[in-house]
Amino acid sequence: MKPVRMETLISFSGIDGAGKSTQIASLRDSLSSRGWKVAQIAFWDDAAVFARFRAGVTLRVLPTQPKSAEEPPLRRDKNVSAWYLTLIRSVFYALDALRLRAVVARTAKSGTDFIILDRWTYDQLVHIKSRTRFARAYIRIVFALAPSPDLPLLLDASPDDAFRRKPEYPLAFLHEYRQAFLALKEFVPKLQIISHGPIDEVRHRILATVLSNSCENLAKSGVGEPRTKLISNSP
């Protein structure tokens, strides 16, 4: 029987050091082993507008901040929110959302069952403070420009653990960063928050969430019984 096409768009978001790369690779392998065709999009490599130019300018304008001879230098880009940087970022974020829509549409034409996105528009808009009515309206506009994931996943993580794994930003900023991600639930009610824990435990929770979502989609479509049996196998 011809496999049932899923065409499910899954996004991974979270603070630096949350384990996104590890969990994306694990999910991709698990889905592929079940017979699905899986594609992966890396936001900064495949969708961001003028990504290299922006990274180069950032390094020149906001160089890393040295700590000590024993400790690695800390970056100064995401955690700097001057008004002029916010304005420039806002323009790029809108362009990125449009480009992302085109990239996802092109990838979907290849006949994939799942498209996994390493970072999403969510990971950009957490840098826009949503205290004002204008900022909140802007966030909603960019969300409308970008394609909406079928299953947006937020990998929650302890800032302290994330800092130990990836000491790139000040610890205080990581705590604020985490809260900004959790606040996205207001704008994205369907956001699935995956609580932090041991790597294998998180892996099983993510896979269970994805397979459960797939079963629901198949049930709604009324087709794909062989696929339902396939995804009901133990992880």
Give the strand tally.
Answer: 5
Name of the CATH superfamily: P-loop containing nucleotide triphosphate hydrolases
Structural class estimated from helices and strands:
alpha/beta
The CATH architecture term is: 3-Layer(aba) Sandwich
Tally of contiguous helical segments: 10
CATH topology: Rossmann fold
Elements, N to C (H/E):
EHEHHHEHHEHHEHH
Q: Give the strand order of the largest sheet, numbering strands 1, 2, ... along the chain.
A: 2-3-1-4-5
Number of domains: 1
Helix share, percent: 40-55%
Distance between the termini: 23 Å
CATH level 1 name: Alpha Beta
Structural features, described:
- With 235 residues, this protein is α/β, with parallel strands linked by helices.
- The protein has one domain: Rossmann fold (3-Layer(aba) Sandwich), CATH 3.40.50.300.
- The protein contains ten helices and five strands, in the order E-H-E-H-H-H-E-H-H-E-H-H-E-H-H.
- A five-stranded parallel β-sheet has the order 2-3-1-4-5, sandwiched between helices.
- Helix 7 packs across helix 8.
- The two termini are 23 Å apart.
